Amino acid sequence: MNSQPLGIFDSGVGGLTVVKAVQGLLPHESIVYLGDTARVPYGSKSPETIRHFADQNVRFLLSKGVKAIVVACNTASAHALSDLQKNHNIPIIGVIEPGVDAALAEPSCQRVGIIATRGTIRSHAYQHALALRRPDLLILEQSAPLLAPLVEENWIDHPATIEALKTYLQPLLDRGMDTLLLACTHYPLLIPTLQSVLGPGIRLVDSATTCAQHLQTHLASLDLLAENASPTFDLFLTDLHEQFELLAQRFLASGPIKAARVELS
Length: 265
Ligand code: DGL
Fold this sequence. Notes:
By secondary structure, this protein is of the alpha/beta class. Helices cover about 45% and strands about 15% of the residues.
């Protein structure tokens, strides 16, 4: 069982930020990644639709023999995680608790901005989880629906992306934000651009590293950590595009990656 792969899914490229963190912390784990590129973005869809997509994604990963699953999508974690955990008999972890841990790791933070898809912001999942642990925090929510599509397009530092970031972030800056929580797994790919737009003094946090840590703790507690000498990385997409393979190779600093197309049912 231990040598079986981990399953990780997202609507598109965003979950690769979690893959990178998992590969860094758990280098002996094999990974099966599913990007639901035919149906991205998830952020604009209804909670019912997201739950349906997430369930199909989990069933596909189970068919690949995975031993545990990471929902590397905030929108799917916000709307579907508890149902997935109820309906499937396998460890399934999401990215919201890890994101909250990352934000609260610095006890001096007072004003936390959250940027995410419309679906994640509408769920208020982060706001609730943060307020539960730090009722004194000022929490500033901002949906940023254009950002995930811009990242899917690989427009990382395009003038249109810079303009969109300035528009989304100005209201948070006006209210004195000291920490910005990147509550969408696509956004860490924008970190260099974000840093240049925000300048120094604002702490940027995302859930990728803390998610990998949660996963490590969880797998260790179940005695499920792998010791594969040659771990594999398999990439499945619901719609193929070359851009994705190139972005994955560059971002994961890996050799050629070949995606396979999959039809979900
Ligand atoms: N990466 C996803 C998230 O974390 C969603 C982007 C999208 O599909 O809208 O929310």
